[in-house]
Design a protein that fits this description.
Elements: E1 2-4, E2 6-8, E3 11-13, E4 20-25, E5 30-36, H1 40-56, H2 64-80, H3 82-93, H4 97-100, H5 103-120, E6 125-128, E7 138-146, E8 149-153, H6 159-172, E9 176-180, H7 187-199, E10 206-208, H8 213-222, E11 228-232, H9 235-246, E12 251-255, E13 261-264, H10 270-282, E14 294-298, H11 302-313, H12 334-350, E15 353-356, E16 375-378, H13 385-388, E17 395-401, H14 404-412, E18 416-417, E19 420-423, H15 427-436, E20 443-444, E21 459-460, E22 463-464, H16 469-474, E23 477-485, E24 515-518, H17 525-532, E25 538-541, H18 544-548, H19 551-559, E26 563-567, H20 576-589, E27 593-598, H21 600-615, E28 635-639, E29 651-656, E30 661-666, E31 674-677, H22 687-706, H23 712-734, H24 739-759, H25 763-775, H26 779-793, H27 799-808, H28 818-835, H29 852-861, H30 875-884
Parallel strand pairs: 1-5, 8-9, 8-11, 9-10, 11-12, 13-14, 13-19, 14-17, 16-17, 19-20, 24-31, 25-26, 25-27, 27-28, 28-31
Antiparallel strand pairs: 2-3, 4-5, 6-7, 7-23, 12-22, 15-16, 18-21, 29-30
Helix pairs in contact: 1-8, 2-5, 2-7, 3-7, 5-6, 6-7, 10-11, 20-21, 22-23, 22-24, 22-26, 23-24, 25-26, 25-29, 26-28, 27-28, 29-30
C-alpha cells in the first residue's frame, strides 16, 4: 500500500509518535493506503510553522499581485495532478470517476479565479470621499489586511473540493493555514500540498495534519497561536467549535448542515423538475450538505410527479466508483451506512412510505462495500424526524403542499437554511418564492451549482459567514481604517473637546458580432475598418511562413500609415510567452489596434494580446472563462487558411507548458471586431493545407451540430458549412486556382466558427487537441482522422443529426433507417478525407502506439468533451477510438 506523510513547514514527515492509520476504499471495504497519524506535538509544530511564516512576512507582506503569480504556479501544479486527484478522490472518498476527474480542473480554476480577483479587483485599499462627519475634515482610508494563522477543518464528503476552498481563500488573502482533513479521507489534501510544494509556496504557509478529529480539533481550535477557524461539517461539530473558539474570541467561518427544500411549482417543466429532484438528492450518494432532500410537490401534480421520479430513480446505476458507468458509488464508511439504514428504519416507523429503495444496493463482487440504493419516501409530514434531521445519504422525502405560501412555510420550518431550489416555468414567480425562503442559496431550475465568484453559506444553524466570492475572501481579512486629520494642530481639533468614536442547456444565447467582409479584392477595406474602429496605430501579428509568402506585407501596404509594426515570432500553437512578447511590442509601438494575419494560432495569439494590452499584466493572468467586463483592444482578423474559424469565435486555445496541457481564454469580448475573407490570401496555400484546414472546419461544423449545446441558429450555420466544404473541397483539389471555391471554403470555416462558438465542440476536438499537446501534431490534421470514429461513437446519441449530415454530404439516404444513415455520414467523411489525399492514420505523424492509453485520460478531461453528444467518462473507450485510427 502507498504511504502518506504529514505536511509541516514545507516538508513531508512522519508523525512525532510514529503512529500510522489505514484509509479504507468504501467501494470494497478494504484498506488501500497508510497515513501518518498526527498528534499534539505535530499540531504544535504545524501552528508554530504557520505563525513563523506569517509573522516573517515572507507571504503576508507580498503584494496581492506577487502572491497571485505564485497562486497561478500553484494552479498549474494542481492541473498536473489532475489524474492522481481523480483516482485518489474516488478510491478514498467514494466519488464516482465521472465526478472526481474534474477536481483538478475545478481546483486549478478556483485558485486562478480567486487569485486574479484578489490581485486586481479586491478592495484592499479604498478611500471614503466624504466621511459623514462634518466636524472632522480628513482623508479617510480603509485597508484590508490578512488575519494571520487560519485553521481549516474539512469533511469527508468532498475532501479535495473543501481543501481547495479553505487553502485558496486563506493563502490568497495573505494568511497561513493549518488544514485538518477528515480522518477517513485525508489523501487528496496531501496531494494538493505536494502541488503547493512544487509551486514554491513558502515553507509554513500551508500545513496538512491528517489524524483523529477530536484530539486535533481541540488543540487547533483552542490554541492561542490561531487567529481564525474555518470549518465545513455538521451543525453539531460547528456548535462545539464555536464554544472552543469563544474563549479566545477567534474569528470563525462555519459552513454546516442542511435539510434543504427543493420546491416544485405547478407550472414547472415536470421532466426537468424530476431530474432536478433526483440530481438534487442523489448526487454523490446524497452526501452533500446542501442536498435538496425535502422535495415539495403541489397536490395537483403529486401523483404524476412521484411516479416519474420513481422511474427516474430506478434508472440510477449504483456501482464501484472507479467504473465509468456508475452514477452513484458507495457511502463514505461503514458507520455512515449504518446511520442511513437507521434513518430509513425510523422513517418506516414514523409512518412514511418507501416508494423505491430502502435497502442496501447489491453490487456483485463488492459485498464489503458500503452501497445503498437511492430511496424515496412519500406520505411524509414535515414534522417527522426524517424531514427535519440531516440524513446525509441517498434518501429523499416528498412532501405534498397546496399553495405557494404553504410551500414557503414548510421550507422555512427547519433549523437549517443552507440552500434550496425552485422549479418553475415562470421566472418572476420562482424568484418571488426564492426571496421568501430563509436560506443562503436558492437555485432556480437547477441544483448543486457552485461558482468561484458567488458566495456560499447558510442562514440559521447552517453556518456563520460565507465562502467564495468577494464576501468569502473578506472573511479572511480584517479591516483597518486610517483617519488622516486635515488639521494637525490641537487648536483646530474640534472633536478633542469631547469623547467620541465610527462600516447569477436548454437556453439559447447568440452573440457573434464580427463584421465579415468577403470577396475578391476586399483586403483594401481594412484601411476604412481601422477608421471605423476609431484607431490610428496598428500592430500586425503574423507568423514567419505567412510573412515569407508576402501576405503580411500586403496587409502592411493596405494599412498605409496606420501600420506601426509587425510581430511574427509565433511558432506553432499560441502560448502565453508569445502573447507576452507581442504585447510588449504593442506597448512599445503604442498600438491601439491589432491585425492578425494567419491561421488559428496567430489569431488566438492576437486575442490574448488584445486582452493583455487592455487589462495589463501578463497573458497568464487572463487565462479564464468569461471574466472580462469591458470591450478589449480592437482586433481585425485576416485568416490565411480555410479552416480556423477563430476569426469569429470567443475562444483562444493556449498551449501551457506550466499546466502541461492546453488552457483557454474564453470570453465574448475577445471575438474579433472584423474578419476579412479575401480569397487571394489563400491562393498560395498548398493543396494539402487546404484539405487539412477544410477538414478542421468540417469537424467544427459536425461537432457543433451534434453537441449538447446545439440549437437552431448554430445548426443552420453548421449545415451550410458542411454543404460548402463538401461542394468546394473537391473543386479546389481538382483546380487549385479555383478562387470562387476557395472563397466559399473561407465562408464555410467562418460559419463553422460561428456554429461552434455558440454550440461548442466535442470529443473529436478533445482528442485532436490532446494529440497536439502530447506529440506536437497539428490538431487540425488529427481532427479529420478522429472525426469519423467519434461520429460512430456518438451514433446512438446524435442519430437524427448525423442522418441529416449524411444527406448534406450527398449520401442518398432513401430507404435507410436513421441509424444506418447516421453511420453513412461517418463513411462519407472518411471518403472525403481519402479523396482529398489526407493522411488517415496517427502513426503517419510519428505518434507512439503506447501513448494511446494516457492520451485517452487527457482527452476525457479536455473541456470540449463536456459538450460531446455521448457522455465521455471511460478512458478505455477513448483509447479504443485512438487505436482504431492509429
Amino acid at each position: 500500500m502507498d504511504h502518506y506523510k504529514l505536511f509541516i513547514n514545507g516538508g513531508f514527515a512522519e508523525s512525532a509518535s510514529g503512529d500510522v492509520f489505514e484509509t479504507i476504499d468504501p467501494g470494497t471495504g478494504f484498506p488501500f493506503a497508510t497515513v501518518a497519524k498526527a498528534g499534539r506535538a505535530d499540531a504544535e509544530a504545524a501552528i508554530t510553522a504557520a505563525r513563523r511564516a506569517f509573522d516573517s512576512g515572507v507571504w503576508s507582506n507580498l503584494s496581492a499581485a506577487d502572491r497571485a503569480d505564485k497562486i497561478y504556479d500553484f494552479a498549474d501544479e494542481v492541473a498536473k495532478q489532475t489524474l492522481e486527484l481523480a483516482m485518489t478522490e474516488s478510491q478514498d472518498a467514494g466519488h464516482v470517476i465521472r465526478l472526481s476527474k474534474y477536481w483538478g480542473m475545478v481546483g486549478s480554476g478556483l485558485l486562478r479565479n480567486l487569485g486574479y480577483y484578489a490581485s486586481r479587483h479586491f478592495p484592499w485599499e479604498e478611500e471614503i470621499p466624504y466621511s459623514g462627519n462634518a466636524f472632522a475634515p480628513a482623508r479617510e482610508l480603509i485597508y484590508r489586511e490578512p488575519i494571520g494563522v487560519c485553521v481549516g477543518i474539512v469533511p469527508w464528503n468532498f475532501p479535495a473540493s473543501s481543501a481547495f476552498w479553505k487553502i485558496a481563500q486563506a493563502i490568497i488573502m495573505g494568511n497561513t493555514i493549518v488544514l485538518k482533513p477528515a480522518t477517513s479521507t485525508p489523501l487528496t489534501a496531501l496531494i494538493i500540498a505536494r502541488a503547493a510544494l512544487a509551486a514554491g509556496i513558502p515553507r509554513g504557509v500551508i500545513n496538512v495534519l491528517p489524524g483523529p478529529g477530536g484530539e486535533l480539533g481541540q488543540i487547533l481550535c483552542t490554541h492561542p497561536g490561531v487567529d481564525k477557524i474555518a470549518v465545513t461539517g455538521s451543525t453539531e461539530v460547528g456548535r462545539e467549535i464555536m464554544k472552543m473558539a469563544a474563549d479566545s474570541v477567534k474569528k470563525i467561518t462555519l459552513e454546516l448542515g442542511g435539510k434543504s427544500a427543493n420546491i416544485i411549482l405547478d407550472d414547472a417543466d415536470i421532466d426537468l423538475a424530476v431530474n432536478g429532484a433526483c440530481f438534487g438528492t442523489f448526487f454523490h450518494q446524497g452526501q452533500v450538505c446542501e442536498s435538496g432532500t425535502r422535495v415539495l410537490v403541489p397536490a395537483k401534480i403529486y401523483d404524476e410527479f412521484i411516479e416519474k421520479m420513481k422511474q427516474r430513480t430506478e434508472k440510477i446505476r449504483v456501482g464501484y466508483q472507479l467504473l465509468p458507468d456508475s452514477h452513484m458509488g458507495p457511502l463514505a464508511n461503514a458507520a455512515h451506512l449504518a446511520t442511513v439504514e437507521n434513518y430509513v428504519k425510523l422513517g418506516r416507523e414514523e409512518g412514511a412510505t418507501v416508494l423505491t429503495g430502502g435497502k442496501r444496493a447489491d453490487v456483485p463482487g463488492l459485498e464489503g462495500g458500503y452501497y445503498y440504493a437511492p430511496t424515496i419516501f412519500t406520505d411524509v409530514k414535515n414534522s417527522m424526524r426524517i424531514a427535519q434531521e440531516e440524513i446525509f445519504g441517498p434518501v429523499v422525502c416528498i412532501i405534498k403542499y397546496e399553495s405557494d405560501e404553504e410551500a414557503v412555510a414548510v421550507a422555512n420550518d427547519s433549523i437549517y437554511g443552507l440552500a434550496g431550489g425552485v422549479f418553475s416555468g415562470n421566472n418572476a414567480r420562482a424568484v418571488r418564492v426564492a426571496r421568501q425562503i430563509r436560506t443562503g442559496t436558492v437555485w432556480i431550475n437547477n441544483y448543486h451549482v457552485f461558482a468561484d465568484f458567488c458566495p456560499f453559506g447558510g442562514y440559521k444553524q447552517s453556518g456563520v459567514g460565507r465562502e467564495l466570492g468577494a464576501t468569502g475572501l473578506s472573511e479572511y481579512t480584517q479591516i483597518k481604517r486610517i483617519h488622516v486629520n486635515a488639521f494637525a494642530a490641537v487648536e483646530s481639533n474640534f472633536t478633542m473637546k469631547c469623547i467620541s468614536d465610527e462600516t447569477k442547456i436548454t437556453s439559447v444565447q447568440y452573440n457573434c458580432p464580427t463584421n465579415v467582409i468577403s470577396g475578391h479584392g476586399t483586403l483594401p477595406a481594412i484601411y476604412k475598418e481601422v477608421v471605423n474602429l476609431e484607431c490610428k496605430r496598428v500592430l500586425v501579428i503574423t507568423d514567419p511562413g505567412v510573412r515569407r509568402a508576402g501576405l503580411a506585407k500586403r496587409v502592411q501596404d493596405a494599412l498605409v500609415e496606420f501600420c506601426v509594426g509587425v510581430y511574427d515570432n509565433i511558432d506553432g500553437d499560441a502560448t502565453p510567452e508569445s502573447m507576452d512578447a507581442a504585447t510588449a511590442m504593442a506597448r512599445e509601438c503604442r498600438a491601439d489596434c491589432i491585425v492578425s494575419v494567419g491561421g488559428g494560432s496567430v489569431i488566438d495569439t492576437a486575442k490574448g494580446v488584445c486582452v493583455t494590452l487592455k487589462n495589463g499584466g501578463k497573458a497568464n493572468d487572463h487565462i479564464a472563462y468569461n471574466r472580462l467586463q469591458k470591450p478589449q483592444i480592437p482586433h481585425i482578423a485576416v485568416p490565411t487558411t480555410v479552416g480556423t474559424g477563430s476569426e469569429v469565435t470567443n475562444t483562444a486555445v493556449v498551449r501551457s507548458e506550466k499546466a502541461g496541457r492546453h488552457v483557454f481564454l474564453v470570453d465574448n469580448r475577445i471575438i474579433p471586431n472584423t474578419a476579412i475573407l479575401d480569397p487571394q490570401f489563400v491562393l498560395t496555400l498548398p493543396v494539402n493545407a487546404i484539405a487539412t484546414t477544410a477538414m478542421d472546419a468540417m469537424a467544427h461544423a459536425i461537432e457543433a451540430l451534434t453537441s449538447t449545446m446545439a440549437q437552431p441558429i448554430s445548426d443552420g450555420q453548421a449545415l451550410q458549412a458542411i454543404r460548402l466544404i463538401r461542394k468546394n473541397l473537391p473543386a479546389v483539389m481538382a483546380n487549385i486556382k479555383d478562387e470562387k471555391a476557395r472563397n466559399e471554403l473561407q465562408f464555410a470555416a467562418t460559419m463553422a466558427g460561428w456554429a461552434f462558438c455558440v454550440a461548442q465542440a466535442g470529443l473529436a476536438r478533445a482528442m485532436s487537441r490532446t494529440m497536439g499537446m502530447l506529440y506536437t501534431v497539428h490538431h487540425g490534421a488529427v481532427c479529420g482522422i478522429v472525426l469519423p470514429v467519434v461520429m460512430r461513437f456518438n451514433v446512438d446519441f446524435a442519430m437524427d443529426k448525423l442522418a441529416v449530415i449524411a444527406q448534406t454530404l450527398g449520401v442518398n439516404i432513401a430507404g435507410m433507417d436513421n441509424r444506418t444513415a447516421a453511420l453513412a455520414a461517418a463513411d462519407a467523411v472518411e471518403k472525403l478525407m481519402a479523396e482529398s489525399g489526407q493522411r488517415v492514420r496517427l502513426r503517419d505523424f510519428g505518434v507512439a502506439e503506447n501513448g494511446m492509453d494516457i492520451a485517452a485520460f487527457h482527452a476525457i478531461c479536455d473541456p470540449a468533451a463536456l459538450f460531446n453528444a455521448r457522455p465521455v467518462n471511460d478512458p478505455g473507450e477513448i483509447a479504443v477510438l485512438y487505436k482504431q485510427v492509429f
